[in-house]
Amino acid sequence: MTDGRPSRGVLITLEGPDGSGKTAHAEHLRAAIAATGREAVLVREPGGTPAGERIRAILMDRDESSVRLTQRADALLFMAARAQLVERVVRPALERGAVVVSDRYLDSTLAYQGFGGRLGVEELLPVGRFATGGLRPDLTVLFDVPVEVGLARKTAAETTRFEAHFDRAYHERVRAGYLALAAADPDRWIVVDATAPEADVLEAARAAVLGFLAGGTRRA
Known about the structure:
Layout: E1 10-15, H1 22-34, E2 40-44, H2 50-60, H3 71-95, E3 99-103, H4 106-116, H5 121-132, E4 139-144, H6 147-153, H7 161-165, H8 168-184, E5 189-193, H9 198-213
Parallel strand pairs: 1-3, 1-4, 2-3, 4-5
Helix pairs in contact: 1-9, 2-3, 3-5, 4-5, 4-8
């Protein structure tokens, strides 16, 4: 592979606005890949390493009185956790020939801080390339859902500062950002309608992922 990617293994990333359901489907997708006989590794962002989990605690804390982050600090903390995860977990797994399923990746920062926080994709991309060492996903599945539907799905226990302290306009920009990123790179992105029944959403994502791994269609 090129663009800083290892010569073996496949990186599949799952993206989506808050409440899209991608995290609920992540383990099912990992299991479906493993059932084909391939090693499948599931990671999440931010987190996945001791340092990443400490950063996650800061980033997801809904008590803004403890740590009030600027959009730039937000983006850099996500990048730091990502850099650690890529170097410690993702690259080694890819070098073994594994399929890595990542619950969020660089596109999350582009959508949330780039579009939602209005930092701009052009500023964040060079930082993202540095943080990941140029490691790009082979396939990205976007679980798309309208903002009002996604936010209504979140329970009190699942609420982070992104739901608690960011207004609807912010979340609308995030969703629009995701759709813009997908439209700009259709060869990498699959868009799944996450408003469909849960079983249908999972089947669409599963078919897309397994089809891609088998060398078939990448469309959901």
